[in-house]
């Protein structure tokens, strides 16, 4: 069992955070590229991915929005990620590690980014498709860059915190008085599958993460993700989890207590030896809201729990 972090961390000193991540996960775990939203929106989860997209986007008071031309904050996001990768590359100094980069998935992007005239991309079928296609193009190019920069195994984590809200029709409209129509499973799969495909084609392993309740396990396994990362406290053992695991989809447990992992898998009918080498231990979600000390402790506990299950 390996261990890693979800992505976001507190603070604004990337070098110090990256050193801790490398020291904690560089040998047996998965080193992740830290996101430091304390540095501003361009360094947050959405901003990072907005910087990769080949679509002009700017940052408005209400959030990220498709625009006639590239905005200053999109350029800042692109430059910040490039500088962060330079720092990580220097710190690793050619060391071959398992490395994980996070990007935001197409459903959460559609539920977050606005169209030029307002309201979310989610409201427009054609715009959703174009955004997903642009994301797949961006991820393909980014994976190629990561392969050039870093030797060793590469994992791309697709973050979908809004997926259950999108599927359930719970994303508010701009007025706040209504909800966007739900996206059904075939349409969601059509948005996710191209992103999964370019990750695999680039030689990386696609993992999806959602710390929301009611994770759509069957949809995500069917889309081709190699693993599903989830908040164990919000998951109920069910046939869907068992079927996904039996079909070859690994599980990344958002819990730093090995006993809880064993209990969950035991209720699915799996003994520890059957999953010890098929997954990872992570904190339940990103750690940007924690104090630096608490965040470091959470990562250390994840590493210790993974070691006890191996």
Structure description:
The protein is α/β, with parallel strands linked by helices and 310 residues long. The chain has one domain (2-36, 84-309): TIM Barrel, CATH 3.20.20.210. Helix content is 46%, strand content 14%. The protein has twelve helices and ten strands. It has helices at residues 14-25, 45-52, 72-92, 106-112, 125-149, 163-167, 185-201, 217-222, 239-246, 258-268, 272-275, 292-309, and strands at 2-3, 31-32, 57-60, 63-66, 99-104, 154-159, 205-210, 227-231, 250-254, 279-282. The strands form two sheets. Strands 1-10-9-8-7-6-5-2 form an eight-stranded parallel β-sheet. Strands 3-4 form a two-stranded antiparallel sheet. Strand 7 (205-210), helix 8 and strand 8 form a beta-alpha-beta unit. Helix 1 (14-25) runs parallel beside helix 12 (292-309) and helix 5 runs parallel beside helix 7 (185-201). It is globular, with a radius of gyration of 19 Å. The mean pLDDT is 95.
The biggest sheet amounts to: 8 strands, parallel
Helix content: 40-55%
- From the spread of the alpha carbons, the general shape counts as globular
Q: What is the mean predicted local confidence, pLDDT? A: 95
Which value, in Å, is the CA radius of gyration?
19 Å
Count all strands and give the number. Answer: 10
Supply the number of structural domains. 1
How many helices in DSSP terms?
12
Tell me the name of the CATH class. Answer: Alpha Beta
Spans of at least 5 consecutive residues with low confidence:
none
Calculate the terminal CA-CA distance, rounded to whole Å.
5 Å
Structural class: alpha/beta
């Amino acid at each position: 069992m390996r261990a890693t972090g979800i992505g976001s961390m507190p603070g604004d000193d990337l070098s110090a955070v990256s050193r801790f991540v490398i020291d904690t996960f560089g040998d047996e775990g998965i080193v992740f590229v830290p996101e430091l939203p304390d540095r501003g929106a361009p360094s947050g989860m959405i901003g990072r991915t907005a910087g990769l997209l080949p679509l002009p986007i700017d940052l408005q008071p209400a959030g990220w929005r498709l625009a006639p031309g590239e905005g200053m904050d999109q350029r800042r996001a692109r430059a910040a990620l490039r500088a962060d990768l330079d720092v990580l590359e220097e710190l690793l100094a050619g060391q071959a590690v398992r490395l994980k980069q996070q990007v935001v998935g197409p459903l959460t992007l559609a539920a977050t980014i606005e169209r030029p005239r307002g309201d979310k991309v989610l409201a427009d079928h054609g715009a959703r498709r174009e955004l997903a296609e642009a994301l797949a193009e961006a991820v393909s190019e980014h994976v190629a860059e990561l392969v050039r920069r870093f030797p060793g195994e590469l994992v791309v984590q697709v973050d979908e915190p809004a997926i259950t809200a999108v599927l359930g029709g719970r994303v508010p409209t701009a007025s706040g008085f209504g909800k966007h129509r739900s996206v059904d499973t075939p349409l969601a799969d059509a948005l996710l599958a191209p992103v999964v495909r370019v990750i695999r084609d680039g030689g990386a392993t696609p993992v999806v993460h959602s710390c929301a309740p009611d994770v759509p396990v069957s949809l995500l396994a069917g889309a081709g993700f190699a693993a599903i990362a989830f908040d164990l406290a919000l998951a109920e053992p069910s046939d869907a989890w068992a079927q996904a695991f039996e079909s070859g989809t690994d599980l990344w447990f958002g819990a730093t207590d090995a006993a809880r992992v064993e209990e969950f898998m035991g209720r699915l009918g799996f003994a520890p030896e059957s999953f010890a080498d098929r997954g990872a231990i992570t904190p339940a979600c990103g750690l940007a809201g924690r104090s630096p000390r608490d965040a470091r402790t959470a990562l250390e506990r994840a590493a210790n729990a993974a070691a006890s299950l191996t």
